[in-house]
Specification:
Structural class: alpha/beta
CATH class: Alpha Beta
Radius of gyration: 22 Å
CATH topology: Rossmann fold
Helix content: 25-40%
Largest sheet: 8 strands, mixed
CATH architecture: 3-Layer(aba) Sandwich
Order of helices and strands: EHEEHEEHEHHHEHEHEEHHHEE
CATH superfamily: P-loop containing nucleotide triphosphate hydrolases
Distance between the termini: 19 Å
């Protein structure tokens, strides 16, 4: 899945498993003849993805499909279990010292809930200014002006630096979160449902801010969302994720005009429209399977209206169905 212009970040066969070991009660039960086993959840499975410098890649899927976990791996908040991630051609896992520190500063994350992502005990001056001061990007004496400049970039008055998070609205808090991410001068930002918790009118303002910052600062985004309208508006390319796997990737205009994978088609069919000819909407049948016990073969086959025997036994590989458009579906064979 190579992006035009060469990737700034590449994922290869990235997998993340969460394992819950057998606790003391389980061990005692096992000594009495029970068969308590450790629990393994495969949140992300064999993901390949390239993101070019200056590009916006939208990552879309239902809740629980692994989007946020993948975003946290990309941002360095949690390590992958297997697979490799490269930054500007260098393996992140092999980075040490100043090289690793430079990568950690270059990739920042903006979280979904602005109420939970800001420390309620710190003033905005510390929330935004602490990291650049600690990492030597600004001196203590210059921190006040630096924070005011960061707040101005996101549309807030520099005088707000003396306030606490509880004194702001949701939209203002999210702008503070954006200022905090920008304060260490990143080149890549992971946006995890960054507008989902905001009112619709405020969402539009924050989305416009993202686009303005992209143009002004040359930022690259991985934009995680389940809102297809937002993704279509913001993204250059879109990756569709289902139960931990990427099932389709294409340019935004190509994917919305000619979706290939049945899951993508079902997602787009659920999007509200003003088209008078379409007044009824059919939701995707069934529930998202549990990652504790994923179905064999194609993970979408229990819900797919086109599934046949091969889908139940063999996992489809990603194949190019049009220039720059790949999809994992046996119907393409």
């Amino acid at each position: 899945m190579t992006a035009a212009g060469g990737p700034i970040l590449s994922l290869r066969s990235v997998t993340k498993r969460f394992t819950q070991k057998v606790d003391l009660a389980g061990k005692i039960a096992n000594s009495l003849g029970a068969k308590v086993r450790e629990t393994v959840v495969q949140a992300v499975s064999d993901v390949d993805l390239d993101i070019a410098e200056g590009e916006v890649v939208g990552l879309v899927g239902e809740s629980g499909c692994g989007k946020s976990t993948l975003g946290r791996i990309v941002a360095g908040i949690m390590p992958q279990t297997t697979g490799t991630m490269t930054w500007r051609g260098k393996d992140v896992g092999a980075m040490h010292g100043s090289e690793r520190r430079a990568w950690q500063l270059a990739v920042q994350m903006i979280f979904q809930d602005p109420y939970a992502s800001l420390n309620p005990r710190l003033r905005v001056s510390e929330i935004v200014g602490e990291a650049p001061r600690v990492h030597g990007l600004v001196s203590r004496g210059a921190q006040g002006k630096y924070v005011a400049d960061m707040l101005d970039q996101v549309g807030l008055d520099g005088a707000y630096a003396t306030r606490y998070p509880h004194q702001f609205s949701g939209g203002q808090r999210q702008r503070i979160g954006i200022a905090r991410a920008l304060a260490v001068k990143p080149s890549f930002i992971v946006c995890d449902e960054a507008v989902a918790a905001l009112d619709v009118s405020i969402q539009a303002q924050v989305l416009n801010l993202f686009m303005e910052l992209r143009q002004r600062l040359g930022l690259t985004y991985l934009f995680i969302s389940h809102n297809l309208a937002v993704v279509e508006h913001l993204s250059d390319r879109v990756a569709i994720m289902y139960l931990g796997r990427i099932v389709e990737v294409a340019r935004a205009e190509e994917l919305f005009a000619r979706p290939n994978h049945p899951y993508t088609q079902a997602l787009l069919a659920e999007v509200p429209t003003l088209d008078a000819a379409r007044r009824t909407y059919k939701p995707i049948s069934g529930e998202l399977p549990s990652p504790l016990d994923p179905p064999p073969g194609c993970a979408f086959h229990p819900r797919c209206p086109h599934a046949f025997d091969r889908c139940k036994a063999e996992r489809p590989a990603l194949k190019e169905v049009a220039p720059g458009h790949i999809s994992a579906c046996h119907l393409n064979g």
